Amino acid sequence: MSLDTLIQLDWQWLRSFNGSDSLFWDGFIATCTAGLTWVPLYMALAYMIVRNGDARKAAITIGGALACVLLVTIIDNGIVKPWVARPRPLNDPVLGHTVLTVAGVTADDFSFFSAHAANTSSLALFLCMVVRHRALCIALIGWSLLNGYTRLYLGMHFPIDVLTGFVAGSLVAVIVYTIYRLVLRYAATEARFVSSQYTSTGYSLDDVDVVMLVLALTFFYAVLRALVIAL
Questions:
Q1: From CA 125, how far away is CA 174, in angstroms rounded?
Q2: Across 2-11, 19-28, 115-124, 161-170, least confident range
Q3: For residue 18, how many other CB atoms are within 10 A of its CB?
Q4: DSSP collapsed to 3 states, 147-189
Q5: pLDDT for 71-125, tens place per residue?
Q6: DSSP class per residue in the chain
Q7: Please, what is the angle between helix 55-73 and helix 115-131, to 10°?
Q8: Which end of the chain lies in a sparser environment, N or C, as judged by fewer CB atoms within 10 Å?
């Protein structure tokens, strides 16, 4: 398959996900794609990490999560985007006028690859491997997929940009987690839990429930905000 053919397919795939005639969905997606929307989730995750384990383990775990985001940001914004220099769909000089957009949501930098997809997938997968709780893992992966979808809906990225972001983020998460396990072993803080009140890696199920509740309430907030926008 030639590069031109792949680019044409990318445009066709984008049109399957891009925009709608619904003010509600415009508001919901715009809310979900905003970084500030998820600050309560990040705070809840930090709370869960600090509450479960000594200071060294908490510091190592938070350091691993931050390393995922930092590495993805350096690779994406510092290397790949300037090198590839692919315009975002809504800024494309030829077909950008065909892209459906939402008022107030725009960007002037490059498209390949999606930092939203890469950052959220790296953080989600890293924490899935750290906490080892099925429901939380499903919720975090769903959260990451939603963030990737918002970029297509808003015309901010092409499907290949988002898919590449997911792959890059997942690779970074696996690398960071491998180093995290080695550091934990060296620091002699790693232990396994068999209590029904904890995950196998020592995270209280009550604290996991706090994260799940905050995530659910954030979705509820996004829905309410979208309803207000649509009225």
A1: 8
A2: 2-11
A3: 21
A4: HHHHHHHCCCCCHHHHHHHHHHHHHHHHHHHHHHHHHHHHHCC
A5: 999 999 999 999 999 999 999 998 889 999 998 888 888 999 999 999 999 999 9
A6: --HHHHHHHHHHHHHHHS--S-HHHHHHHHHHH-GGGGHHHHHHHHHHHHHSS-HHHHHHHHHHHHHHHHHHHIIIIIIIHHHH-PBPGGG-TTTGGGS---TT----SB-SS-HHHHHHHHHHHHHHHHH--HHHHHHHHHHHHHHHHHHHHTTSS-HHHHHHHHHHHHHHHHHHHHHHHHHHHHHT-------TTB-TTS-BHHHHHHHHHHHHHHHHHHHHHHHHHH-
A7: 160
A8: N
Structural tokens at position 202 = 């020592």
What residue type is 13 in one-letter code?
W
Look up tokens 């904890």; give the residue. Answer: 198
Q: Which amino acid is at 91?
A: N
Assigned token pair, 139: 């919720």
Whose tokens are 């715009």? That residue is 30
Tokens of 194: 């068999």
Residue with tokens 């232990």: 191
